[in-house]
Description:
By secondary structure, the protein is of the alpha+beta class. It contains 9 helices and 10 strands.
Amino acid sequence: MLISVLAFFLVFTVVALAHEFGHFIAAKFAGIRVYEFALGFGPKLLSIKRGETVYALNLIPILGYVKLAGMEDEEEDPSCPEDRKYYNKPFKDKLLSVASGPLMNLVLAFLILTLIFALVGVPKEISNVIEKVKPGTVAEKVGLKPGDVLISLNGAKVSSMAAAIEQIHSSSGKPLTLEIGRAGKTLKLKATPQYDPKLKVGLLGFTPKPLYVRVTPLAALYYGAQQTLAMVVLMFIIIWQLIVGAVSVRDLAGPVGIAQVTGQYAQSGALTLFHFVAFLSVNIGVINLLPLPALDGGHLTFAFIEWVRRKPLDRKLESKIHQWGLVVFLALMALVTFNDLLRIFWPK
């Protein structure tokens, strides 16, 4: 549990810092005054003012925020010139300062993936070595462990792990005999794949270890960009499935669920955890670009409407819309957190 909590705070701190740093540096570049750059929420633990910006560390060290002049409908610092306020900036400056947060999340994912591919290599195929066993699954119940080698399946030697997995997927409800190599010994285990209604295949609950091929730094950049783009596309597919009802809100994970998953990845090793950080960063970047109130995409939508209309919108009305959007967002977070707790304390 402690590992899950620590990994959760570490991962979200890195992802949040990247996001807020994107807003911060872009706003500075656009000439918008930045009142505060803060990590975390709640009462301030530490703060220091450099120039016109307060840099703060708050009590709850998760997420963060950047306070820009003219971004919120509240009393402004009278010393701030009007031409340095967000709402008085041209569309391109608004676009730059708002979109740079989510885009920095994509950049972070790209850099992490590129570093992995440059140092470790690119996964080309999977081995017959079991890398991870998911808790509570058939694999754990029959005694499979990380590091086990799958030698044969139903008496047939495993020459291709991909073919073996395909056989497992098509054997839902059918008993299988697994010959396992472990610490120089050979074991025989009986396991029956359990049908997964989401994936529509039979699963045992283990993940095989991938085999990596070393690549040049230039190739690592290519694969990093390719994998980042694939994650972005996957996120849009998931969002579309949510819209059409193919995926239920009950399947989403909130902070508790993400903390639990983060802990599982942390226990699986640094490489797996870094992959998860990249995927989470893409998630946050894409979700923030959605044209919904309270999100960065919502601010971009209002900026675009202003640009098309050639006149400013009512700032009080825009602020109220964002506030109501925040209420809806927090209600959704409460719902998915409740679902997280149900999955933990009352699993199916």
